[in-house]
Amino acid sequence: MPARFMTLADVAESLSVSAAQAYALVRSGELPAIKVGGRGQWRVEISVLEDYIQGKYAETRALVASPAADDEDALLG
Questions:
Q1: Which DSSP helix (H) or strand (E) runs through 51?
Q2: Are 43 and 34 a contacting pair, CB within 8 Å?
Q3: HSE (CB half, 13 Å, CA atoms) of 50?
Q4: pLDDT confidence of residue 2
Q5: 3-state per-residue secondary structure call for 12-45
Q6: Domain map of the chain by residue range?
Q7: Of 27, 28, 63, 26, nearest in space to 48 by CA
Q8: What band does 7 get if pLDDT is binned at 50, 70 and 90?
Q9: How many angstroms separate the Cα of 36 from the Cα of each of 3, 8, 63, 73, 77?
């Protein structure tokens, strides 16, 4: 049976961000996650991470299509 959940370390690796950045995404509510176990370890469902990534692609497409996209700083910010 394939894994359903990822640790925050796995999420960080998948997104090429630091563990602290992955934790911040979860704590802010931007990336939904659950706490499991006695130590309250965070887990992110793989399908939720995929939905998050697709949402970021949609945001980027909208940003690039906007009139402000002509401003290079808007794209790099």
A1: helix 46-65
A2: yes
A3: 5
A4: 84
A5: HHHHCCCHHHHHHHHHHCCCCCEEECCCCEEEEE
A6: 5-76
A7: 26
A8: very high
A9: 15, 12, 36, 41, 35
Q: What is the pLDDT of residue 14?
A: 98
The two three-digit tokens of residue 5, written as one number: 């959940």
The pairing of strands 34-36 and 41-45 is antiparallel
The one-letter amino acid at 48: V
The letter for the amino acid at 35 is: K
What is the per-residue pLDDT across 31-68, written as a single tens digit (0 to 9) for each? 999 999 999 999 999 999 999 999 999 999 998 887 76
The predicted pLDDT at position 65 comes to 86
Domain 5-76, CATH number (from 1.10.1660, 1.20.1630, 1.25.10, 1.10.3470): 1.10.1660
